Amino acid sequence: MTEIKLHNTLTRRKEVFTPLDPENVRMYVCGPTVYDRAHLGNARPVVVFDVLYRLLRHVYGPEHVTYARNFTDVDDKINARAAESGRPIGDITAETTQWFLDDMSELGALEPNHMPRATQYIPQMVAMIEGLIADGHAYAAEGHVLFRVRSYKEYGRLSGRSVDDMIAGARVEVAPYKEDPMDFVLWKPSSDDLPGWPSPWGRGRPGWHIECSAMSYELLGESFDIHGGGNDLMFPHHENEIAQSCCAHPSGGFAQVWMHNEMLQVEGKKMSKSLGNFFTVRDLLDKGIPGEVIRFVFLSTHYRKPMDWTAEKAREAEATLRKWRALTEGVSATDVADPVLEALADDVNTAGAVAELHRLAAAGAAGELKASAALMGLLGEELGDWAKAVDLSEFAQRIRNLRTHAIETKDFSELDAAKAALQTAGVEVRMSKDGVELVPGAGFDVSKLETLK
Ligand SMILES: Nc1ncnc2c1ncn2[C@@H]1O[C@H](COP(=O)(O)OP(=O)(O)OP(=O)(O)O)[C@@H](O)[C@H]1O
Ligand SMILES: [Zn+2]
């Protein structure tokens, strides 16, 4: 069996991956808060962990891997969006969730086995919070419940910081009902105009961190293999998840391996909604950049390195994919090439794997190229429509020239023949006094067009 090595944030080392149960390898990744279109940065963890999911399925068998990624559909940012837009919260979260699924599917990401919505796990969160209070790890005060950070000795291990350093560095909220400024919210009261659920502490709503602890426990158990997300979530979100889960289930080990992707940046800064320096995945797709090209650009950089999106990278990716698609057209996939598998098994080194794909293409090993690319979610049928669409500008120019010539000579035969040939290839020719427009129709056939060149 292929040996997989993964960089574990907890130990800061690359380690041989040994699943707790090879019959059921389990991974949890923090998903989006649903109130807006996903920006390109949000897509990076989706693509990165999609490749890891595919690798695990390849090595352990598709039915032996369980992948859960949540939707945070209760959050103050969502409430604020509803208030400013005058729309019901449920409409906003349902619409945004569907946008996310559509956009990520265009990037060739497989759907995780479980996609829990936080609002569907409120009773489980309440139960977990009750357990934490009973064991002295949390306390209720003024309708809030807070986690007592000093009650968990290992707090700070993931990010490698002491509690005192964290207090100094973080913008922790000081509140009269907190025993210690580091303590974080598990539950908070809701006024009548905000979403709320009944609880032993009154009508309220959960804090963000408890969601992932409760949902991963319900779906994957008290110990599972991999927990992932962007490195912006390491503190406080993941640190808090660990504290809650390990205190609620002391016999479990929670996540064995913690993996964090680096940020997609814009001029050296994290792309983020709060900085306003973002563009959405949908913006790029609408500009005609195929999802497969976006995916390829992501995979060309290792997940633990920061990266920028540039138009030049997109152009190169598109040219490469067009070449590889032509090379593998109609070819049956053989086995995944060993060097590609080895690169992916080496801490998901997608950049190394892409270099190996280039080598396979150069050697004309089309069957291996197709199989190896498929392991990375590339060159599949489902993403391929864009590559069949061809650039018709050359033909449009030819028609324009022929028309000028025909008007001068009063001989329309060449123009008519060229139009007829395009129509046979399924291209509609629209001519007006302003110009010429070529539109591929339902019967569009690229191979017929090739013969016209
Ligand atoms: N620029 C980025 N590069 C890579 N991953 C990112 C980036 N920004 C957010 N993420 C990741 O996207 C996922 C969804 O995060 P979340 O919904 O909290 O983002 P967000 O609140 O919309 O982001 P932000 O406000 O930071 O722009 C998380 O795993 C997070 O780490
Ligand atoms: Zn989370």
Automatic annotation (TrEMBL):
Gene Ontology BP annotations: cysteinyl-tRNA aminoacylation
Domain of life: Bacteria
Motif 'KMSKS' region: where in chain: 270-274
InterPro entries documented for this protein: Cys-tRNA-ligase, Cys-tRNA-synt_Ia_DALR, Cys-tRNA/MSH_ligase, Rossmann-like_a/b/a_fold, tRNA-synt_1_cat_dom, tRNAsynth_Ia_anticodon-bd
Main location, first listed in the record: cytoplasm
GO cellular component: cytosol
Keyword Transmembrane listed: no
Entry's cofactor comment: Binds 1 zinc ion per subunit.
GO molecular function list: ATP binding; cysteine-tRNA ligase activity; zinc ion binding
Reactions the enzyme catalyzes: tRNA(Cys) + L-cysteine + ATP = L-cysteinyl-tRNA(Cys) + AMP + diphosphate
Cell compartments where the protein resides: Cytoplasm
Residues reported to bind Zn(2+): 30, 212, 237, 241
Keywords from the UniProt entry: Aminoacyl-tRNA synthetase, ATP-binding, Cytoplasm, Ligase, Metal-binding, Nucleotide-binding, Protein biosynthesis, Zinc
Motif 'HIGH' region location, chain numbering: 32-42
EC annotation from Swiss-Prot or TrEMBL: 6.1.1.16
Subunit details: Monomer.
Family matches, as NCBIfam families: cysS
Family the UniProt entry places it in: Belongs to the class-I aminoacyl-tRNA synthetase family.
Name of the protein described by the UniProt record: Cysteine--tRNA ligase
Organism: Roseovarius faecimaris
Species classification: Bacteria, Pseudomonadati, Pseudomonadota, Alphaproteobacteria, Rhodobacterales
Annotated gene: cysS
